[in-house]
Design brief:
The structure holds three protein chains of three kinds. By secondary structure, chain A is mostly helical. Chain A is built from five helices and no strands. Chain A has a single domain, classed as Orthogonal Bundle (Helix Hairpins), CATH 1.10.287. In chain A, helix 1 runs antiparallel to helix 2 and helix 2 packs antiparallel against helix 3. By secondary structure, chain B is mostly helical. Among the domains of chain B are: 313 residues, no CATH class; 74 residues, no CATH class. In chain B, strands 1-2 form a two-stranded antiparallel ribbon. In chain B, helix 18 runs parallel beside helix 21. Chain B is globular. The chains are: A mainly alpha, B mainly alpha, C mainly alpha. At the A-C interface, helix 1, helix 2, helix 3 and helix 5 of A face helix 1, helix 2, helix 3, helix 4 and helix 5 of C. Chain A: NDH-1 is composed of 14 different subunits. Subunits NuoA, H, J, K, L, M, N constitute the membrane sector of the complex. Chain A: GO terms for molecular function: NADH dehydrogenase (quinone) (non-electrogenic) activity.
Chain lengths: 134, 664, 222
């Protein structure tokens, strides 16, 4: 099989994931796009391993081992990422990436009305924050 | 201990006391009083020992060079002759009296620790000036006194008068200090040293190239410090400070420094006839003008302030006729009785609750409230008016006698014109001095009207000091004129018959005329009620005085003046009274000459800075601000935008790298 | 062209041994299968990142990931293919669906699924794709993978390699997974004061359970 096929497919998948990361509004969809990008890398690893394990001497199957590791790390990543997204959603009432603009110029961290979520979850969120800080 | 060690300790002890007082004043207020009184007392004892050991013999000279300067050397030098020993003794005596008096006078003042420390520092600076034999070290003491007077005159800084007065004292003396500094450098450049002995040696051998220029430059500083015309205007205003400070400044320290400085360098001034004539004219204008002004003042302390200026005029007059013995003699006796006058005035102000003579003349039995102040002030006023046998008589006659010597041509040190000027002005001033002393006494103690309020006896610390100071005023003169010549240059200080008769005669005339006028005008007093007293008569003396000073202008319309028809000075001076009350409008002249041009210049500079310079600065800031505004728009806080920009840049870089690598 | 040149040199070496390199115009059966599955995978991925229905995106992701598993099989990496199916399709997508539900993602078409950054993202993605495809094709157009011969991706071969040469990284990975487990629990614990108890329970157990499951899968994979 031509190496160009999996390589091109991986490149295209990667760019699709890239588009998703940049264009999607929901944080969970962004995480999905990240998964796509990781899988594109995995495909590359497997394809080059299949090529090199026959073309070169003693590659130790490093491509496949790395692909396995990537899969494990991706699983951990998705767990942590979802936990973060959920924490953000619970605090802010939204998981839309483009509404989390605390780092913007002129943003006042003490002003609860400056982000839209302050109104979405009024009292419980405030109490919860107080308890969290306590 | 050697005499040198003792002499070093004399200025050092009050300095250490001041240092400790400033450091501990806040944390340990209980130590403030001992730290104020004890070092000064010890330094008085040491000064007495030094004087006894020196004993009018050969001057004690000691010097050590701290570090080579590369040009004219600056040395820590002592030069103690008879003048220095005796002046230091008087300074230490007055300072001790003032410190003891202050413990009672400012007993409830929250700022007493810093006040006492500054008085100690002031004393130490004056003692340094007196003992030092190096002009640079003298300048250090000279300037320390300037800054201390600024702080002390402004002690009641809550009142606008005190703030203005302290600034004025500082600026006016500095106005004189600038030429003084230039003069010092010129002198050192000519003589090749700052050491007093070397300079005097150079003068004796004619080694000074520009004696007139240097003398005139130095005279400017002396006029500022010793409150001589035309730089005397700060002194009456300095009355806004606490009374003990006035006593200290007027009797022994700051104003005496100028006279003492000229006395030390008299041979230099003698080398220039012009300087001596200028000195004589300055003295004459100062003493007659100040005596006239003193006759018109309403504030008891301002009367004393103008009298100080006048007596300093006598001293500079004596220097103008080249007799420093007479000058320092008058300095010593004046130090004693003027300190007494001020301290007694402080007691009176406390008892009366006002500093206005017009208000006091409408109180009866004030003298029974303060018997100590009454008797001691009478003594001091007699000494001031130069009535025999009080000390002022002998010292003043010494000055007049020397002037007469010069007039009759018995000396070649001074021009005869200077002698005439000093003699005539001295006689006129003797008349006026007796007049204003009598006026002060009559208005303060012979008032009629409602009884003065009774606050009980004054603190013992305040009254004892008065009697201590009254002794030299009573007895000092009689034996001093026989002993002092041994300590000084050896000139005879015995009063001559002519000037004694003349001087005492005019003084008696002045006193009697004033008394007669007072009898005539006192009838008006009952008809024109006038006067305001302090709001808290039971408080300590310092607060009463501060309130009295602050209320004088609202009550009478002016700091110095009261429209009192029963004032004998008003009748005596006639149309001159109004002008004399404001010090002959010298302040207005200064305002026109200096204050307004400086203010105009300041507003011009302000305009240039705000409108011209700032325009360029703002213009230079505009471009970065626009760029910043443009860049700030990119800071949206949206992560996806950031990452898009980042990845777009990465793609561009990667493509560029590939293109470069392929050589395309 | 250094990157491509080295890769090309390497490829030339293999080509030398393989004697002749088959052309693109006469594809083998494997290639045709790979191409078709690849098209499906890519299409599913594109739909995943463009669909307006959020749950559908997750389901299309299943298709894409499954397609990739098939590609792994075609590349003779059978162990990785099954791991892919187990972990990705089995747990990750389930986790993502849980996440969507817990964040109350709208079911049905949501008009604002894409942010305003869409055209910029599109431009960047297309540019990146063009650059990558150009370089990759330029470098590897003649490289041939010989898929015949001894199997290289069986469980036996992979396990031997993993436990002979990759033991240390494998154990380090275990520690990493443990850290992720603890981290997920800590992140979830912070929300204990949530007023909605149901949401709290689900949120508290969700990611942690996901991590444990991932870990369990990994253990199973061992």
């Amino acid at each position: 099989m031509h190496l160009a096929y999996p390589a091109v497919l991986a490149a295209l998948l990667f760019c699709t994931g890239l588009y998703g990361v940049l264009a999607r509004r929901n944080a969970i969809l962004v995480l999905m796009s990240v998964e796509l990008m990781l899988n594109a890398v995995n495909l590359n690893l497997v394809a080059f391993d299949a090529w090199l394990s026959r073309a070169a001497e003693d590659t130790l199957h490093s491509g496949q081992a790395l692909a396995l590791f990537t899969i494990a790390i991706a699983a951990a990543e998705i767990g942590i990422g979802l936990a973060i997204v959920l924490a953000v959603y619970r605090n802010r009432g939204t998981s839309d990436i483009d509404r989390l603009r605390d780092t913007a110029e002129g943003h006042d961290p003490d002003d609860p009305d400056s982000d839209a979520s302050g109104r979405a979850i009024p009292a419980p969120a405030a109490g919860e924050k107080a308890e969290a800080t306590a | 201990m050697t005499t040198t060690t003792l002499a070093v300790l004399v200025p050092l002890l009050p300095f250490l006391g001041a240092l400790a007082g400033l450091l501990l004043g806040r944390t340990a207020p209980g130590f403030a009083r001992p730290l104020a009184v004890l070092p000064t007392l010890a330094s008085l004892a040491l000064a007495a020992t030094v004087a006894a050991r020196q004993g009018g013999g050969a001057p004690v000279d000691a010097a050590t060079e701290l570090t080579p300067t590369g040009s004219v050397p600056i040395e820590l030098a002592l030069h103690i002759d008879g003048f220095a020993a005796l002046t230091a003794l008087v300074v230490a005596t007055v300072a001790t009296c003032v410190q003891i008096y202050s413990t009672g006078y400012l007993r409830d003042d929250p700022r007493y620790p810093s006040y006492a420390a500054l008085v100690s520092l002031f004393t130490s600076a004056m003692l340094l000036v007196v003992y030092t034999g190096d002009l640079m070290v003298l300048l250090v003491g000279w300037e320390v006194m300037g800054i201390c007077s600024y702080f002390l005159v402004g002690h009641y800084w809550e009142t606008p008068e005190a703030r203005a007065a302290s600034l004025k004292a500082f600026l006016v003396t500095k106005l004189g200090d600038v030429p003084f500094l230039i003069g010092l450098f010129a002198l050192a450049a000519d003589a090749g040293s700052f050491r007093l002995t070397r300079i005097l040696g150079a003068v004796a051998h004619g080694g000074i190239d520009h004696p007139t220029l240097i003398s005139l430059l130095l005279l400017a500083g002396v006029a500022g410090k010793s409150a001589q015309f035309p730089l005397h205007t700060w002194l009456p205003d300095a009355m806004a400070g606490p009374t003990p400070v006035s006593a200290l400044i007027h009797a022994a320290t700051m104003v005496a420094a100028g006279v003492y400085f000229v006395a030390r360098l008299l041979p230099l001034f003698e080398a220039s006839q012009a300087a001596m004539t200028v000195l004589a004219v300055m003295a004459a204008v100062t003493m007659t003008g100040s005596a006239l002004a003193a006759l018109a003042q309403d504030d008891i302390k301002r009367v004393l302030a103008y009298s100080t200026i006048g007596q300093l005029g006598y001293m500079t007059g004596a220097l103008a006729v080249a007799d420093r013995g007479a000058a320092v003699f008058h300095l010593l006796s004046h130090g004693a009785f003027k300190a007494l006058l001020f301290l007694a005035a402080g007691v009176i102000i406390h008892a009366a609750g006002t500093n206005s003579l017009a208000a006091m003349s409408r109180m009866s039995r004030l003298r029974d409230r303060v018997p100590d102040a009454y008797w001691t002030m009478t003594v001091a006023l007699l000494a001031l008016a130069a009535i025999p046998p009080f000390s002022g008589f002998f010292s003043k006659e010494a000055v007049l006698g020397v002037a007469e010597h010069v007039v009759t041509g018995h000396t070649e040190h001074a021009p005869a014109a200077a002698g005439w000027i000093v003699l005539l002005a001295g006689l006129i001033t003797a008349l006026l001095t007796a007049a204003y002393a009598t006026r002060l006494w009559l208005l303060a103690f012979r008032g009629s009207g409602p009884e003065a309020p009774d606050h009980g006896r004054e603190p013992l610390t305040m009254t004892t000091v008065l009697w201590v100071l009254a002794v030299p005023s009573l007895a000092f003169g009689g034996f001093a004129f026989r002993v002092l010549p041994d300590w000084f240059d050896g000139h005879d200080l015995t009063p001559t018959l002519t000037t004694s008769v003349l001087g005492t005669g005019v003084a008696l005339v002045g006193g009697i005329v004033t008394y007669a006028t007072w009898r005539h005008t006192t009838a008006h007093a009952a008809r024109v009620p006038l006067g305001a007293v302090a709001a808290h008569p039971e408080a300590d003396a310092a607060q009463v005085e501060a309130e009295a000073i602050a209320s004088h202008e609202p009550a009478y319309g002016d700091v110095a003046y009261a429209a009192d028809p029963s004032d004998p000075g008003r009748l005596l001076l006639g149309r001159l009274h109004r002008h004399a009350a404001v010090g002959f409008h010298l302040d207005a002249v200064y305002s026109a000459l200096f204050v307004r041009p400086v203010r105009a210049g300041a507003s011009l500079v302000r305009f240039l800075d705000r409108e011209v310079v700032d325009t360029y600065v703002r213009g230079a800031g505009a471009l970065p601000r626009w760029l910043g505004a443009a860049v700030r728009r990119a800071q949206t806080g949206n992560l996806q935008t950031y990452v898009s920009a980042l990845l777009a840049g990465t793609v561009v870089l990667a493509v560029a790298a590939v293109l470069v690598a392929t050589g395309a | 062209m250094s990157t491509a040149a080295t890769a090309g040199a390497l490829a030339a070496g293999t080509a030398h041994r393989a004697a002749e390199s088959p052309g693109f115009l006469s594809p083998t059966g494997v290639e045709i299968t790979f191409l078709l599955v690849g098209l499906v995978t890519l299409g599913a991925a594109v739909v995943t990142v463009t669909t307006r229905q959020l749950v559908h995106a997750a389901l299309w992701l299943v298709v894409a990931l499954g397609g990739l598993a098939v590609e792994y099989l075609l590349l003779t990496a059978e162990f990785i293919a099954w791991v892919q199916v187990l972990i990705y399709v089995g747990s990750v997508v389930v986790l993502l669906l849980f996440g969507l539900m817990l964040t109350r993602a709208p079911i049905g078409r949501s008009p604002d699924a894409d942010s305003g950054n869409r055209w910029v993202a599109f431009t960047v993605a297309v540019a990146a794709a063009a650059a990558l495809v150009w370089v990759v094709v330029d470098a590897f157009r003649t490289t041939w993978i010989d898929l015949d011969g001894a199997p290289s991706g069986t469980t036996e071969v992979t396990g031997a390699g993993l436990f002979q040469h990759w033991v240390l990284p494998f154990e380090a990975l275990s520690v990493l997974l443990l850290a992720a487990l603890v981290g997920a629990i800590v992140l979830s614990r912070k929300a204990n004061g949530d007023s909605a108890p149901g949401a709290k329970d689900a949120a508290g157990s969700g990611p942690a359970a996901g991590a444990t499951r991932a870990r369990r899968d990994q253990e199973g994979a061992r």
